[in-house]
Amino acid sequence: MIEEGKPLFVQIAEMVEDSIVDGTLPEGAQAPSTTELATFHRINPATAAKGVNMLVDKGVLLKRRGIGMFVAEGARDVLLAERRDAFAERFVDPLLLEAGKLELSADDLAALIRSRATSAKTRKDPQ
């Protein structure tokens, strides 16, 4: 659950983000409190609060005084856009750079991806 080498507060924020992205924590729903997060993960409440506040600063969570934290409307879309950008930087940009070195056109690359996706699906679901 807890990864070495990554700050705990970042991991807490990512766990809450994952719940929003996968729909287990829908928009408008109450998010876990910093106390709940700290207790569950056995970490300092200040660390949990720092992770939650990252999401508040991003506009993903909203504080309602005296009630708690809630998932903001549009939070899932914000997170998906952010993750798509990160995915492109981490995987697509290097892929395109290497494809250029191999003189693969965009059509060649698309065909290669379709072929791999089909074979991966066949391996995963042999029906």
Your description of this structure?
This protein is mainly alpha-helical. The chain has 2 domains: 8-73, Orthogonal Bundle (Arc Repressor Mutant, subunit A); 84-124, no CATH class. Helix content is 65%, strand content 6%. The protein is built from 5 helices and 2 strands, in the order H-H-H-E-E-H-H. The chain has helices at 8-21, 34-41, 45-58, 75-101, 106-124; strands at residues 61-64, 68-71. A two-stranded antiparallel ribbon has the order 1-2. Helix 2 (34-41) crosses helix 3. The mean pLDDT is 92.
Strand order of the largest sheet: 1-2
Strand portion: 5-15%
The low-confidence parts are none
Give the number of domains: 2
Regarding quaternary structure, what we see is single chain
Biggest β-sheet, characterized? 2 strands, antiparallel
CATH class of the largest domain: Mainly Alpha
Précis, in short:
With 127 residues, the protein is mainly alpha-helical. The protein folds into two domains: 8-73, Winged helix-like DNA-binding domain superfamily/Winged helix DNA-binding domain (Arc Repressor Mutant, subunit A), CATH 1.10.10.10; 84-124, no CATH class. 65% of the residues lie in helices and 6% in strands.
